[in-house]
Amino acid sequence: AQSVAQPEDQVNVAEGNPLTVKCTYSVSGNPYLFWYVQYPNRGLQFLLKYITGDNLVKGSYGFEAEFNKSQTSFHLKKPSALVSDSALYFCAVESGNTGKLIFGQGTTLQVKP
Amino acid sequence: NAGVTQTPKFRVLKTGQSMTLLCAQDMNHEYMYWYRQDPGMGLRLIHYSVGEGTTAKGEVPDGYNVSRLKKQNFLLGLESAAPSQTSVYFCASNPNPGALRTFGSGTRLTVV
Lengths: 113, 112
Fold this sequence. Notes:
The structure holds 2 protein chains of 2 kinds. Chain A is mainly beta. Chain A has strands spanning 3-5, 10-14, 19-21, 24-26, 31-38, 44-50, 56-58, 64-68, 73-78, 87-95, 101-103, 107-112. In chain A, the strands form 3 sheets. In chain A, strands 2, 5, 6, 10, 11 and 12 form a 6-stranded mixed beta sheet that branches. In chain A, a hairpin with a 5-residue loop joins strand 5 and strand 6. By secondary structure, chain B is mainly beta. In chain B, 0% of the residues lie in helices and 51% in strands. In chain B, strands 2, 4, 5, 6, 9, 10 and 11 form a 7-stranded mixed beta sheet that branches. Chain B is globular and about 35 Å long. Chain B is built from no helices and 11 strands. In chain B, strand 4 (31-38) and strand 5 (42-49) form a beta hairpin.
């Protein structure tokens, strides 16, 4: 069965510092991996995805994520955090051709000035 | 603008009442999904459809039914609402597995 774990409920960073939001997954077959962001009272916005190819994926708003097959991880990173990055972040995994996208429980990112 | 439209945006139901949530997409997508979002639990897949006339169960299908009579519409039904179904419901669609999903803006449902 597919599963996604985001081990941190909340991540706090100071503006200008690098940030990492962690994600690990379990899936049979080759995974499709996604990061989404949700601002208060809004829907989900796509940040980036990994399907195949280069393990370092670059996405919207300066975010990037590194696919690590041996550690089954797909951590979200940004070199310099902004206060406006404060939001709820979701990692998600889809296995092969199932069409089923399974989400992690979410991590709240708080960037303080 | 093209996208996924959910109606209604807000609804309050009494326990035992029934209702249908409508999801409509105008992108000719084959795949459609219904999720519920609860604090601390992320989004959980209720039901999904891989094409017109098909439906399949997701992670939390109990208490819900769905129908996909037309390709552009995916209906989520609650036959007898329970307080445990208080949640924010999101619909999404995509053309094929692995493709970017487009999400609707959500329906906030409260069951009292």
